[in-house]
Amino acid sequence: MNHSLMSLLISFAPMVVVALTALVVMINIAIKRSHFWSATISVVGLNVALAALLLQIFGFWHVDYSDISMFAMDNFAKVNIAVILIASLACCTLAYGYFHTLKDNKDELYLLMLIATLGAMLMTSATHLAAFFMSLELLSVPMYGMLAYTFLRTRSLEAGLKYLIQSAAMSATLLMGMAFIFADIGGLEFSKIISVLFSRHEMSSLFVLGAIMMLVATAFKLSAAPFHHWVSDVYEGAPAPITAFLASVSKVAMMALLVRFLLLTASWGLSPVLTVLLVMTVLSILFGNLSAIRQSNLKRLLAYSSVAHIGYVLSVLFGLGVDGAGIMTVYMAVYALTSIGAFGVITLMSSPYRQFTKNSSSGEADQMQFYQGLFWRRPALTAVLTIMLLSMAGIPLTAGFITKFQVIFATIQGKQFLLAGMVILGSGLGLYYYLKFLTCLFQKPIANFEFDADKHWGVQAGGVMLLIITAIIVVLGIFPNGLLQIAQFIARG
């Protein structure tokens, strides 16, 4: 094996490990189906990939990136990949308990999840339009099957089909935008794009059109307004662990890809692109929060809330530009953890697998009424959900407060006072609908409850993972230096 190939394998060790894990799971399915072994192999593989990544981050492995042209394994990519691996691990753990009693094949779910995770990891480091599209589709295609995995549920099948049809349309839009950029620039590398743009004296309408089309396609994947109409139905219909995967792994990867494209191709400096992005940012904050206020379904509430959070993150770009990549990454990391925590509670409440109930069309504990008086029978689980929602609202002593404060500070520092006001207004609205749901947890308990978590949920794999995430959110809220150091680490790289 020559030196360049060895260097390449070491550079992409986390991706290689995840790919090999997917291959082993595939072989395991072919030899003998075992839900336990498929889940175990997936978790072990993701842990090994995370360990390999940490060795690179802390400098135990010397990595030479000189031979890499389509991907950039910089600090920005490494931190985002770490978040993706942690989120994927959590979702695998939740999925095991959720699907354990599903009377159908369960093993393929982990194969799909590993392939999607691999695509997400590659997305964070793509520096070439071909790598951009390939990695995006590597994430999107498995998602179709994951969303519709419990296909006997009408809502799950509907969620998968809606995402398939609309996502395919946006993928076509993305590809057309790339074609316009290639026709204008004559290359697909981000470095060539920025060099050509800097050598020109006037703006190319063909490039602007291509960049806007790519921005619209990625905005759909991020569920940024006004391209967010799919998100509530898909969140509600999909199985809870898969919704957690969509809200964490997919969102982190898409935001990293968008930031890298805008900043490394100088598209950020084009006024038409800037205008479209500003409109999407403002609309996301307004529509997301105003739509969430009216919801009594927790999954739909979290869906619209995610639209607003995307608006908060995008506002950092207007405040700090290139220097805001670290803050955006940290914000998405905290948001991913809190989303997993919230959907993790739904998962534990919805297990074992149920096809439908009298008051739930999705077969899950997603309605507000199912959580009335939860504190009196599951106080620890109530504490977990409370901390997650308070973190999303940006309440002090939670990690969400630190990240939201950084967003507001970034917009003020960049003299974007309108956006700063929008973030503050949106946070106030968010606090209202989060607290409205939380008050339900402490009300008089209902006599007959359709859904409830296992009595010993805290000692199960999914429960242990939720408790760890809760501890992380609280510790980072009390001692925020860790988050600030991560942002500085990205800035240095």
Q: What do these coordinates show?
A:
With 493 residues, this protein is an all-alpha fold. The chain is built from 20 helices and no strands. The longest helix has 32 residues, at 154-185.
Write the layout of secondary structure elements.
Blueprint: H1 3-11, H2 13-31, H3 35-57, H4 75-99, H5 107-123, H6 129-147, H7 154-185, H8 190-199, H9 205-222, H10 231-237, H11 240-264, H12 271-293, H13 298-320, H14 325-350, H15 374-377, H16 379-393, H17 399-413, H18 417-441, H19 461-478, H20 481-492
Helix pairs in contact: 2-3, 2-5, 3-4, 3-5, 4-5, 4-11, 4-14, 4-19, 5-6, 5-11, 6-7, 6-11, 7-9, 7-10, 9-11, 9-12, 10-13, 11-14, 12-13, 12-18, 13-14, 13-17, 13-18, 14-16, 14-17, 14-19, 14-20, 16-18, 16-19, 17-18, 17-19
What's the number of structural domains? 1
Shape: globular
Please describe the biggest sheet, giving its number of strands, its sense, and whether it closes into a barrel: none
What is the helix tally? 20
Along the chain, the helix and strand elements come as HHHHHHHHHHHHHHHHHHHH
Name the average pLDDT: 85
Beta-strand level of the residues, as a percent range? under 5%
Percentage of residues in helical conformation: over 70%
Low-confidence stretches: none
Total E-strand runs: 0
Structural class: mainly alpha
The separation of the N and C termini measures 30 Å
Oligomer class: single chain
What value does the Rg take, in angstroms?
22 Å
